[in-house]
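User:
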Amino acid sequence: MAFLVGAGGAVLFVVVFLLDGLTRPGYSPTRQTVSALALGPRGWIQTANFLVCGASMAAGGSAVVLAGQYLLGALLAVFGLGLVVSGVFRMDPMRGYPPGTPDADPAAFSRQHQLHDHAGAVVFFSLPVTAVVGAFVLPGLMWKVATVAVVIILVLALNAFSRDWEADAPRTGLAQRAFIVPGCLWIAGVFLHFAST
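Assistant: Predicted structure:
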């Protein structure tokens, strides 16, 4: 059951931020990050998305540990918990969102924003490491090939996102989504694999 909860959380996380980003007034999913969706009047949607889906993936990771894949399960749980902490601590308003916010970064970041950034670092660095571990421990050639492909996508997308974030590039949000979407779908696949074995 926990495997299905984890898979559902991974897919739902993507569906919610994609739909919310496309329908949020004044929000640009191409430029702005997923975390910015936790700001403004509808911010509760993304906050709940972080908390519920992150906890679901952490539960799925714990089930993978109980199934005997200790390192893979622990890393999946860490990723999920990183999302939970990202929901507890929001980023500061910046870069034009919510509407009316100055287009630049604030002169100084709040403690809450700094904690959100630390949680984000856990999320963005644990996922490629998790996939690397998965490439070694998941059975069968198809899983290994698919997981290596995911590792390559994650590394390239993380590099693009890091570069675009520092430059406040107009495609920052797009680069971030190129990392999160395939990563979460891979996680969902891993949980479904364990559910079927």
